[in-house]
Amino acid sequence: MVRAVGIAVAAATIAACTPSSTVTTYAGQTGQSRFDAGPPLCPVDPTPANRGPSAGCGKATTQATGKYVRFSLTVDCQADNARDRLYYVRLPPNYDPAKAYRTVYLGPGCGPPQDLVGASKVYPMEAASDPDAILIAMEQGFYNKAEYNSSSCIDPTTLDGGAASGTLCHYCFDDGAGTTSPDSAEYGYFDRLHKQIENDYCVDTDKQFYAGYSSGGWMAHQLGCQFPDVLRAQASVTGGLPPAIHIGAKVCVNHPIAAFLIHDSADPSNPYSGSVTALERLLRLNECHGNKSSASHVPYVVTGMPNTSTFDCVKYDRCLPDYPVVFCTTKGYAHDAQSGAAVPGFWQFFKSL
């Protein structure tokens, strides 16, 4: 079930660093969900290939273009504390409901609720993608407090429209960073979300993408594992490979997916090695014949950002056709979102597929 709400959020340049801890799942509490045992709460059916333009093509809309608009989504299969979710849709200027658009889903790092922070938490992808893409800003629920919250943080659910002052509690996606549980609240959320978007707007279903930072970067690997038959490519800055995927507790859909990863070698919050592990899973999946060092690779240049000693990208060039993998190592950016490279770099990559 989806319901539009008359609130628009102006897109703005992402903050330099949205805090995110390495371990982010349920703040060590128990009894909040059933994600640690039994079958998944929200089973996901396989998605057929070559679906073409979505059911939303030809549907007129009165939605404003060029800005994010807020919607609610009920994930009815989910536990009560993770059932009610939000998302934000930005239609490009001059949106044409008869044209099938590339669609980019965006996942921010841990933070307070979008409604209470003003500027958009996600990458300002529109700076590169306008007027050629529909953008979807995904939002964490109130089910997963960040572990770095102070004991005095203010629970946003107690606020009246954000009027109270003080430090708001931060929330993360159920990103799998600190658990070997194979299930995640985000699988049911994304399954319902992409189907709702495809129904409401004119989407090229063969050209849907995801890009995330920090907690949203961990989620890139979750969604790439569960939805490679929906997403054409995944992209991440920081994050890492969730342990459940790494040890095989979570069984991924056996389908290749293109990928673009950026990680700083001295990231103090999400270790660089986590993205290397994620990279090597993708190299195996896409049959790139080797690991980070041994698989054939060539320099890759993000337009306007030549490779340097502090920003160095390679493209693995002997993978399955149409499923390239790009990996960028940076220095001196710590846990920064690196939007100056991520926004043009990710869009350049997505547009090439």
Structure, described:
- This protein is of the alpha/beta class and 353 residues long.
- It has a single domain, classed as Rossmann fold (3-Layer(aba) Sandwich), CATH 3.40.50.1820.
- It contains 6 helices and 11 strands.
- The chain has helices at 126-129, 185-200, 215-226, 243-246, 272-285, 339-351; strands at 2-9, 68-74, 84-90, 101-107, 133-138, 203-213, 233-237, 258-264, 297-299, 311-316, 325-330.
- Strands 1-2-3-5-4-6-7-8-11-10-9 form an 11-stranded mixed β-sheet, sandwiched between helices.
- The radius of gyration is 19 Å and the shape is globular.
Rg calc: 19 Å
Mean pLDDT across residues:
88
String of helices and strands: EEEEHEHEHEHEHEEEH
The global form is globular
Write out the strand line-up for the largest beta sheet, numbering strands in chain order.
1-2-3-5-4-6-7-8-11-10-9
Query: Which fold name is given in CATH as the topology?
Result: Rossmann fold
Strand % is 15-25%
Tell me the number of structural domains.
Answer: 1
In the CATH classification, which architecture applies? 3-Layer(aba) Sandwich
Largest sheet: 11 strands, mixed
How far the N terminus sits from the C terminus, by CA atoms, comes to 32 Å
Structural class: alpha/beta
Helix content: 10-25%
The CATH first-level class comes to Alpha Beta
Uncertain regions: pLDDT < 50 for 5+ in a row?
1-37
